[in-house]
Structures are given as structure tokens and as C-alpha cells.
């Protein structure tokens, strides 16, 4: 994200992040918080945790991560609501990054109207 900020110093940069696995998010929770607090981006959306092969045991969720980051530019949006939200708020010159190891790439492709 630092390289993106250098490349696009005047544009609004969005990071759409899909955490991967409940146990990884739980064990690295404090590290995730630290990183998100210091990212040089304008908006961070943290969406649902991609469970992969795990079962949600209720130890952690994306809303808790957003609350711990505790910054106005960081918020939770469900995957179901994400495309509609982005279509309303992202401007033509904004730069949008989708990150995650789950199925976030499908949302990214759908957002820019690319085939899967």
C-alpha cells in the first residue's frame, strides 16, 4: 500500500480486505490491527472472513477487527452489500485494491465487469 500511495499520491485509494480463516485472524488479530492503523490509504473496507476449511467457532469476526482498528476510514461491509456500496461511492479516478485469499477476486471482477 505504501508503493500504491507513492504511485498515486493524489488519488483516493481504497483497500477492500477479506480476512482468510478464523484461526489466522484470531491469532494475528493484534498484528492486523497495527497494520490497518498505519496503512497510507483513504478507505479500508474489511469484509467477511473467508472460512476456507474452518468452522466459525465465534472467536473472532470482521466487525471486531474494524472496532479494534478504531479509525473513521475503516469499516465493515458484508460481501452481499459490497458491490452496490462501491458503485455508489467510488469515483472514476479512485484506485481500488481487493486483497484476500478467498473468493474476493470474484467480487473484484464483478465490480469492474470482467468475466470470472
List keywords for this structure.
116 residues; alpha/beta; Protein-Tyrosine Phosphatase, Chain A; 4-stranded parallel β-sheet; 42% helix; 16% strand; globular
What does the secondary structure layout of this molecule look like, with pairings?
Layout: H1 2-7, E1 13-18, H2 22-27, H3 29-38, E2 43-46, H4 62-69, E3 74-76, H5 79-89, E4 95-100, H6 104-111
Parallel strand pairs: 1-2, 1-4, 2-3
Helix pairs in contact: 3-4, 5-6
Domains (count): 1
In which order are the strands of the major sheet placed? 3-2-1-4
Mean model confidence by pLDDT: 93
**CATH architecture call:** Alpha-Beta Complex
The helicity comes to: 40-55%
The succession of helices and strands, N to C, reads HEHHEHEHEH
Under CATH at level 1, the class stands as: Alpha Beta
State the end-to-end CA separation: 25 Å
The count of β-strands is: 4
The largest pleated sheet is described as: 4 strands, parallel
The computed structural class is: alpha/beta
Task: Tell me the fraction of residues in β-strands, as a range.
Answer: 15-25%
Task: Explain what this protein looks like in three dimensions.
With 116 residues, the chain is α/β, with parallel strands linked by helices. It has one domain (16-111): Mur ligase, C-terminal domain (Protein-Tyrosine Phosphatase, Chain A). Helices cover 42% and strands 16% of the residues. It is built from six helices and four strands; from the N terminus they run H-E-H-H-E-H-E-H-E-H. It has helices at residues 2-7, 22-27, 29-38, 62-69, 79-89, 104-111; strands at residues 13-18, 43-46, 74-76, 95-100. Helix 3 crosses helix 4 and helix 5 (79-89) runs parallel beside helix 6 (104-111). 22% of the residues are buried.
Amino acid at each position: 500500500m505504501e508503493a500504491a500511495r507513492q504511485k498515486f499520491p493524489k488519488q483516493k485509494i481504497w483497500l477492500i480486505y477479506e480476512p482468510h480463516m478464523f484461526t489466522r485472524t484470531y491469532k494475528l488479530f493484534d498484528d492486523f490491527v497495527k497494520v490497518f492503523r498505519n496503512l497510507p490509504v483513504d478507505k479500508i473496507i474489511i469484509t467477511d472472513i473467508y472460512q476456507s476449511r474452518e468452522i466459525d467457532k465465534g472467536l473472532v469476526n470482521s466487525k471486531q477487527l474494524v472496532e479494534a482498528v478504531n479509525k473513521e476510514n475503516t469499516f465493515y461491509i458484508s460481501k452481499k452489500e459490497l458491490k452496490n456500496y462501491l458503485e455508489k461511492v467510488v469515483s472514476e479516478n479512485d484506485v481500488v485494491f481487493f486483497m484476500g485469499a478467498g473468493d474476493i477476486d470474484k467480487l473484484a471482477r464483478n465490480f469492474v465487469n470482467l468475466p470470472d
